[in-house]
């Protein structure tokens, strides 16, 4: 077992973990952060996307021990003081989900995308989300939601 200390959604956790434990399993099974989901386990679907030090990563694609000393944000830590993150609001308002399984990962990836490119074209949004699969194929509204979130953050910057 290896001792790790990780900040997750603003709280610090120290745990003994198996060196082979995946970050997604640490989040879900040890910390109970079940908002982060597993869709494939082969780093294809993006359902497990979280932020590591502010950048999106697929948490099934890294070990919990690799997060030692780092800061992880999951979908559960995205809202502040009970207020939804603008990307969560945009997904809600644009009906950008069907079964909802891909949604946590989509939102985490989309937030990182706008951080990198605050004013993306539709094409850039599609490329930015290409590592995230929606089995319900609701891509049209997902792209609309990301564009809406980009627009609203620009208005609030103005
Ligand atoms: S569960 Fe991680 S990419 Fe599918
Ligand atoms: S909404 Fe069902 S997988 Fe995307």
From TrEMBL:
Stretch forming the signal peptide: none
Pathway: Alkaloid degradation; nicotine degradation
CDD domains to which the protein is assigned, alphabetical: fer2
Keywords, sorted A to Z: 2Fe-2S, Iron, Iron-sulfur, Metal-binding, Oxidoreductase
Residue ranges occupied by any 2Fe-2S ferredoxin-type domain in the UniProt entry: 2-78
Segments traversing the membrane: none
Molecular function as annotated in GO: 2 iron, 2 sulfur cluster binding; metal ion binding; oxidoreductase activity
Keyword Iron-sulfur on entry: yes
PANTHER family: OXIDOREDUCTASE WITH IRON-SULFUR SUBUNIT
Protein name per its UniProtKB record: (2Fe-2S)-binding protein
Organism for this UniProt entry: Phycicoccus avicenniae
Lineage per the UniProt record: Bacteria, Bacillati, Actinomycetota, Actinomycetes, Micrococcales
């Amino acid at each position: 077992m290896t001792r790790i200390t990780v900040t997750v959604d603003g709280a610090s956790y120290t745990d003994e973990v198996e060196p082979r434990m995946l970050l997604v399993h640490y989040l879900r099974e040890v910390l109970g952060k079940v908002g982060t989901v597993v869709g494939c386990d082969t780093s294809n679907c993006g359902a497990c996307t979280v932020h590591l030090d502010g950048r999106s990563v697929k948490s099934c694609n890294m070990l919990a021990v690799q997060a030692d000393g780092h800061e992880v944000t999951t979908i559960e830590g995205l809202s502040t003081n009970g207020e939804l993150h603008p990307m969560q609001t945009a997904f809600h308002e644009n009906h950008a989900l069907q079964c909802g399984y891909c949604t946590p990962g989509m939102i985490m990836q989309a937030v990182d995308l706008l951080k990198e490119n605050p004013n993306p074209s539709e094409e850039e949004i599609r490329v930015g989300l290409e590592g995230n699969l929606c089995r319900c194929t609701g891509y049209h509204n997902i792209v609309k939601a990301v564009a809406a979130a980009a627009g609203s953050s620009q208005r609030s910057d103005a």
